[in-house]
Hints:
By secondary structure, the protein is of the alpha/beta class. The chain is built from 17 helices and 17 strands.
Amino acid sequence: MKTVYTCFCTDIIHEGHLNIIEHAHKLGKVIIGALSDKALIRYNKFPTIDQDERIRLYEKLDGVDKVVLQDDMTYDDVIRQLRPDYVLHGDNWKNGPEAAIRENVIRLLEEYGGELIEVPYTYNDKVKKIDNQLREKLAMPEYRRKRLRQLIEMCPVVKTIEAHSGLTGLIAEKTVVENNGKLDQFDAMWVSSLCDSTAKGKPDIELVDMSSRLRTIDDIMEVTTKPIILDGDTGGLTEHFIYNIRTLERMGVSAVIIEDKTGLKKNSLFGNEVKQTQDTIENFCEKIRAGKSVQLTDDFMIIARIESLILEQGMEDALTRAFAYVDAGADGIMIHSRKKDPAEIFEFCDKFREQNKTAPIVVVPTSFNTVTEEELASHGVNIVIYANQLTRSAFPAMQKTAEDILRYHRAKEVDDRLMPIKEIITLIDEL
Ligand code: SPV
Ligand code: MG
């Protein structure tokens, strides 16, 4: 009897999947691969049920003989191990980033004479509705909020990119690239004080108030599902901070990062070029404790940001603070630096990890941008934030366009570098 292999990465079975099983069943013994959680988050959508539940779900389906875990999106292991006569897939992976995975499957099958069979992808109104419902579910606060903690467990590093509007949120949500036969995408979004303020034409001095920051978060949440880390600046007055924690938690924000500074906050990348005052360990710990005490779920994270290296207070001070903040209840720490070389970040992480193996470490490699995610992970970093690159790429592009229109008294000269009209009017999906 022939064997047929097909990989599923869905939490809900709809008629498209049933069609595939029916088709497969006619060809032979049906083996379904359940794509593992860690592969699924890079490939498709974040799971609303875990891989064990998905395996049980698939096992119950009529016509399925066996379910195995597919640990990697590339199929290499499963195909080499199972050597199925056929691999069955919907025909919707011929174009776009998934095409590389398809090519790889074809190559693997050629090694021993297996065959790829593609069936027309079922995409009717009912299937579309189920897809949309699943997406909407992921956008609900109870799903989104806990997703950051889940990702920290699942990923070597949680890749986070800045978002300050619905549009930048969509870029964070939807950008997928294929690299060496694997797909990749961002895991989470950072609502940066610098970029949120800059988008409003305001300086990054806690001038954009919380109501406005919440409005930005809401705009992003309207069109995305990925978890949000808020740059909470200094957290403000403790008496206000505790109310904001409740609000953020209720909205479905996953974490707030507050920095140990007081008085008029200026952006850290100024370092000591401007006057900035670090808070005392006691005061800042009190703020962390107060915040943690009002939280209503176990999902939400308060992450303490240490400014000692930025303010040239030394490694010992940074480490003392890190341990004190974790003792006060911080769910993680962020260590910041404006050096070009990541050496002091590595040193901090190594020394912190000697004593604390678990508290998540967050870094923002804006100045030390030659460092890779892999290197950071090898020093115990859990979350990497690309804090301002979208804003910094958009502004010069817009400025150049404005200058050239003024220069040429018409828009023709800039047109080649613009998104085509057809694309901009269809960029945003309608419901
Ligand atoms: C931000 O993005 O606003 C930050 C990170 O706080 S930094 O600008 O590097 O201070
Ligand atoms: Mg900031």
